[in-house]
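Lab notebook page, bench 4
Experiment: in silico fold of construct C2
Operator: M.H.
Input chain length: 177 residues
Purpose: comparison with the prior construct
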Amino acid sequence: MKKCMIMVVLAGLFVLAACGANESPITPQDMANAEDAMFISVGDFSHLRTPYVGAAHATHSVVNALPLPDENWLIVLIQIGQDHGDFAESYSPYTLTIFYEPREGSVISGTRDDLEIPTDAFIANSDLLFDLIENLQAVTFSIKLNPVESGEADSDFFDYRWSRSRHGEYSLQMQTL
């Protein structure tokens, strides 16, 4: 009888707690956000871990698995150990630069005077890169606001470059005209 009473009380508390914790119904957007949060966890990418940024094939696999900062962006080039960010000289050859530009027929939001920089996406992706590539010391995201007309990537041209070191230092470089 005593066990039965305890079970009834616990069941009642459980029901009350469940009702209070979930005052509004779960929406499809809530589910999408939860899926996005799960998608960018390190656990989902753990099979891509590599000890060396210089292992080009493995590094390219990691970069290509990352979520794009925006659905209209695409990766046009990946360079390992090049001097493209403010931290590259200090950390070379343990650097990575990812070049983005808009998909054909799209533009990246913002202008040179009023950039819309997806800082949250860059932070999340750099966190994953540092977790998955053990000796990576700095990452740079190099962005072109408009696609290259020739169709060939040019690592010297960019509108802005957002860089971060493994130690948390940030940098933003703007292309001068």
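Observations: Residues 69 and 122 are 7 Å apart (CA to CA). The first helix runs from residue 2 to 21.
Next step: discuss at group meeting.
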